[in-house]
Amino acid sequence: MMERRHAVAAVAATALLAALPAAAQQADQQAVAQAVNALTAAMLEPDRPKLEAVTAEALSYGHSGGRIENRQEFIAALLAKTSAFRSINLSDQSIGIAGNNAIVRHLFTGETVSQSGQVSPVRIGVLQVWTKEGSGWKLLARQAYRYRVQGWHGGCAPR
After folding, report:
1. Domain edges within the chain
2. What sign does the CA torsion over 144, 148, 151, 155 have?
3. Cα dist. 138→98, 116, 131, 132 in Å?
């Protein structure tokens, strides 16, 4: 028969082991959020090494207008500043972890400025897929979509 102190130790060890996956998931969510912030900063002030550090080689970057870019095209377009971001604000962000992948959804608002100086507002929904490479997270896929109705409903499809 198990002694009381062994039973208490077993219960404590079980509780600790049960908490580990949740703590690891929370740490991954925080690391993904930091990677999203690093990508946003690199998009505002384009820098090849910083953009390469947060994007996977197999990147598929989908724009709300339907254009799809690979990693080289995505970085080249930002560096050329054909349509530079003046501001980017992310809100209503959700991050889900599935093994070595993360799914991020958020509302992306801001402004772009063309080479001719024309400022255009941006208001799109975004789905990102991040993958863990080594100890860091890299953007593997991104798809933006346009809203038909003003408003955001916490990660759900617009109504």
Report:
1. 4-146
2. negative
3. 14, 32, 5, 6
Report the pLDDT averaged over residues 18-24.
58
Q: What is the CB neighbour count within 10 angstroms for residue 113? A: 15
For residue 152, what are its two tokens? Answer: 């955001």
CA separation for the pair 129, 27 (Å, rounded): 17
Specify the residue for token string 């953007």.
Answer: 139
Q: Is the distance from CB of 58 to CB of 71 less than 8 angstroms?
A: yes
pLDDT for residue 152: 46
- Enclosing H/E stretch for 71: helix 71-80
- One of 3.40.80.10, 2.30.42.10, 2.60.40.10, 3.10.450.50 is the CATH number of 4-146, namely 3.10.450.50
Three-class secondary structure of residue 6 per DSSP: helix
Q: In this prediction, what percent of the chain has a pLDDT beyond 70?
A: 77
20 or 79, which is more confident?
A: 79
